[in-house]
């Protein structure tokens, strides 16, 4: 960093990490707009050049930064919940001549490593979410590339079910990261070209090293896009493909959407509090204690109408929105809080009552189905969170069914056997309950349930546990069943947890991140795990190498008129 | 967890100054461990059947309490848990936490290291009891038999002290390690004691005195470094153990005194160095035993250059001998030290960061301390008008651990070829003939005041009792 001699003292203070807020709504969007036309939502990327989230770069050529993606994420959530009538989504550009140039290079070049990593993780999650909409929400995405889609722009298109590229003898699709920037198309690009679009690997190699990419006909031939369409035919073809995409959607025709009002949230220096989720930060110990408050037994809605009427106040949706927001905030804004302690508080009966409602309707009702998939995606966010996750299962907790998934997502689970002897109030010993939810409702990125991942290669145990659905298990029983790591009693609890946390806090954060990610995703690779594992890990390695981010690296030299000076050794 | 075993009346059975009667955690742990300990003592403790023994029991840490004498049936000995007095102002004296208040709980960051240090120390305590299990049967006097048993019960108490720390501060993992301390056994093929020297049987009383002089002295130095620990309960435990350890040294020092004195008497009586035929132990044989026990004890200090020792020091877990009396910065990151080395066939030294040289530092302190005994024994020889002298062999002689391992070095410190070693080994280390001779002298003498032929009587009894006091009663 260059420090000017006459710079004021304050300028030498370390640059404050911007606190990122994920709240937005269509009225506030600066980079997106969407129009609903019958069954189809038309989504326009129209980035405001001066609308960067942090100073220092201009978002030229419809390039994006985290702020653009935060709006995209919000947009996807609103389409799901607020627009049940939407059955297909057309993603296109609001600019005349290009679709999207990808992630903004100057933004990447000036960002810290954690910022880049968090940015990529969030954008990946949103791309996966778009695929999840096509697969599970009856909202199929069509990319209408009305101009060149390069890098992250093409990666955004790759998340769609169908890709149309205008055939105007100049627009192209391209992944120029390797030749121009010395990094990877890390938002799923490399992976989806081969794994989703089945492009041959030698062609994929050419494509990913050819900075100008391919125009329509060749792109179709190589399966990089599905169709290329002349300008003349463009509008009608896109419209037709959107209509085709809407066919067969499971979305209802007569439903009313559920609006997503701003979250109620109170933030102090050491706590983030929502109505259904609380988080306390211990900055000395570098822990966050996340407590999910379960539903009350008497509050379960008796009918679907009532669920729709409750809308965003329906406990599973309300809780999931808050948890989602909390995860994003902690991940982005609290880098040094290395361990998250996951707790629940509430009545097991209440949790089970909601389980029954969800189980009864998630196959048939669009909203209940949406909520289930939302909770699924939120759990997946936990799975790929680079923090140590530890579930503390204590008296008064309600780890049952879907909420038990929170514990199973953790790296370890500690459950109190018996009660706290010196508690002020009378306690029931902690219990956990498996329900049908734990056997398929919330698959991980590797396609397995968390139980299948936990007992990988041991299907008998999973089958046996399936037979124990609805059984109340105490600490000792849960430990015996392999569902918790340890079940210390009152005498041992405090020491065991304290020592565990202190010990954890002393280990290398990087090694922990790598170790946890390896342990969490056992078994089969899927496109998703390849993106979060292989692609991301390589990308993050490349990001810290001087060839990319050194002062003479490709990322830093891009746009300076000077060529990158590579260390030639292959490692 | 429920246990069918009867509740233990803690304060009556287990003298302590750790408020055992109101500590649920300790009680629960000890309820299970104490019966296992008694089983172990029955199986692996002294094999001689006695009615009671005149033993010292610690019932408190104060001046009056720590040395309480009475005839006690061995299996009713009250093993207590004692820590030296608490100093509320104590600060960590060294390493990167220097100046911070000492820890009253195990810092999670150092759990594994502290647990390891305590387990290794704890493992040696019952090991020596096991090694000395059959010695009582050949005691040269009731006085000596009593001293043996005193050492044994105190080693047992030192095991208790380490188990207390594991139980009180290390949770479930600590309880499991405490169980393992009873499950490993000296010399066992399946689950031996951790350190090699503690898997050798102590076959005769000369070996016992040597062991208590040289090997227990290693224990003294290890305890001395743990006494400096920033983990206050460990520090206080070790400080109290050191008091008892002093008696073990005393048994070794005076035991060898008396062997040397008897040998000198026999040499004068017979006007010959050859006293074996007269029921004595020749001086050169004593020297060979010194050579052996001294050198295996040197091995216990580990490699000259040790990153573990450096880490322990920096973390504030294990200091140097008399850390607080040393005149340096107690951090040592900028200092250098010399450690022994063998280079190009020559014994030399090499400079390393001071932090890496801490094992050698401790070994040097130990070697200096060991030489005091030699002065003492040589004064006895001098008093008897005998010119021959005993000595400590060179630090590189007969070493299996560290820079000298695998080298052939004479007791004078000369690098020698293998052939020269083979030709002289029998002159330097106990041979089978020597061991057979010493073992052949081992006959029990059970009559009060009488003494075996190969050793002189003690000059004083225990606790102002006469030498011919009935220290041990038999069934």
TrEMBL record, chain A:
Ion transport listed as a keyword:
no
Which residue ranges are recorded for the region named Disordered?
1-20
A GO BP entry is: fatty acid beta-oxidation
Say if the entry is tagged with keyword Cell division: no
Q: Which keywords belong to this entry?
A: Lyase
Recorded hits in Pfam families, A to Z, give:
ECH_1
Q: Which CDD domains match?
A: crotonase-like
InterPro entries the record matches: Benz-CoA_dihydrodiol_lyase, ClpP/crotonase-like_dom_sf, Enoyl-CoA_hydra/iso
According to the UniProt entry, its GO molecular function terms are: lyase activity
NCBIfam families in the record, alphabetically?
Answer: benzo_boxC (TIGR03222)
What is the protein name given in its UniProt record? Benzoyl-CoA-dihydrodiol lyase
- Species source reads Actinomycetospora succinea
Automatic annotation (TrEMBL), chain B:
Q: Which InterPro entries match?
A: Aromatic_CoA_ox/epox, Benzoyl_CoA_Oase_BoxB, Ferritin-like_SF, RNR-like
Name the source's superkingdom. Answer: Bacteria
From the UniProt record, which GO molecular function terms apply?
dioxygenase activity
**GO CC term, one of those recorded:** cytosol
Keywords per UniProt: Dioxygenase, Oxidoreductase
Q: Which Gene3D superfamilies match?
A: Ribonucleotide Reductase, subunit A (1.10.620.20)
PANTHER family from the UniProt entry: 1,2-PHENYLACETYL-COA EPOXIDASE, SUBUNIT C (PTHR30458:SF0), PHENYLACETIC ACID DEGRADATION PROTEIN PAA (PTHR30458)
Q: What is this protein called?
A: Benzoyl-CoA 2,3-dioxygenase component B
